[in-house]
């Protein structure tokens, strides 16, 4: 039913062109394109405010420094894939433990580098983590699942600067030794009721 050498979206489009509802092939799609992974969604704190007060070039220069800090950290923690879009970072890991350790290392690196947003405010990032089976399209579209959506909401809409928020499922599958300092919380975002766990980075 599925064609060879096509990515997820291409195969779904081919099914539709043949008059086949892709939902009738859902099991086949998950078998072919499903991966159990952890996702890290990184957002920056203060983009709009700093761009207005100091200009876009000022903020972009800090953003490029952030990317240079993140790249080796993601690589060290066995990231399967990662990329950046505007002031967001997206990384995929085989295990939630690697994602948690990577998030902690990013917060530490940004602080240690003394990266400043303005003269009197340091640069900070917000991170959301999720874990579970996701559909992967071998293009820039990336990964799709409820956990990806939850992690995006947490990292981009809920987390404050210096915070890592992880989904309930990610917390369930993580090494408990890595979860020290995480506290349970709940929120509603875009009509979604989310139970998650919050960790505030504190410099040593």
Textual characterization of the structure:
With 204 residues, the protein is of the alpha+beta class. The chain has one domain: Alpha-Beta Plaits (2-Layer Sandwich), CATH 3.30.70. It is 41% helix and 32% strand. It is built from 7 helices and 10 strands. The protein has helices at 8-17, 26-33, 47-54, 56-76, 96-112, 146-158, 168-173; strands at 34-44, 79-85, 88-93, 116-118, 121-122, 125-137, 142-144, 163-167, 183-189, 192-200. The strands form 2 sheets. Strands 1, 2, 3, 6, 7, 8, 9 and 10 form an 8-stranded mixed sheet that branches. The protein has a two-stranded antiparallel sheet with strand order 4-5. β2 (79-85) and β3 (88-93) form a beta hairpin. The protein is globular, with a radius of gyration of 18 Å. 34% of the residues are buried.
Q: Which descriptor suits the 3D outline?
A: globular
Number of domains: 1
What structural class do helix, strand and pairing data support? Answer: alpha+beta
- What's the total count of β strands? 10
| SS strand fraction | 25-35%
> What is the architecture at the second tier of CATH?
2-Layer Sandwich
Major β-sheet, in short?
A: 8 strands, mixed
CATH class: Alpha Beta
Whole-angstrom Rg: 18 Å
Query: Please, how many helices?
Result: 7
In CATH, the topology is named Alpha-Beta Plaits
H and E string: HHEHHEEHEEEEHEHEE
Question: What is the typical, i.e. mean, pLDDT?
Answer: 91
Relative helix content: 40-55%
* Low-confidence runs of at least 5 consecutive residues: none
The name of the CATH superfamily reads: Nucleotide cyclase, GGDEF domain
Please give the alpha-carbon distance between the first and last residues.
Answer: 56 Å
């Amino acid at each position: 039913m599925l064609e060879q050498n096509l990515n997820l979206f291409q195969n779904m489009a081919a099914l539709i062109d043949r008059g086949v509802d892709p939902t009738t092939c859902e099991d086949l799609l998950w078998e072919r394109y499903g991966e159990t992974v952890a996702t890290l969604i990184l957002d920056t704190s203060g983009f709009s405010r700093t761009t207005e007060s100091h200009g876009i070039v000022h903020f972009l220069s800090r953003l490029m420094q952030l990317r240079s800090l993140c790249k080796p950290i993601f690589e060290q923690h066995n990231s399967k894939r990662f990329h950046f879009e505007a002031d967001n970072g997206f990384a995929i890991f085989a295990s939630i433990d690697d994602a948690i350790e990577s998030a902690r290392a990013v917060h530490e690196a940004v602080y240690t580098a003394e990266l400043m947003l303005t003269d009197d405010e340091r640069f900070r990032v917000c991170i959301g983590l999720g874990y579970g089976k996701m559909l992967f399209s071998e293009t820039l579209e990336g990964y799709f699942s409820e956990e990806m959506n939850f992690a995006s909401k947490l990292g981009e809409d809920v987390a404050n600067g210096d915070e890592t928020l992880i989904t309930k499922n990610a917390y369930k599958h993580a090494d408990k030794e890595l979860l020290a300092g995480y506290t349970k919380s709940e929120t509603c975002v875009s009509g979604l009721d989310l139970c998650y766990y919050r960790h505030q980075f504190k410099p040593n």
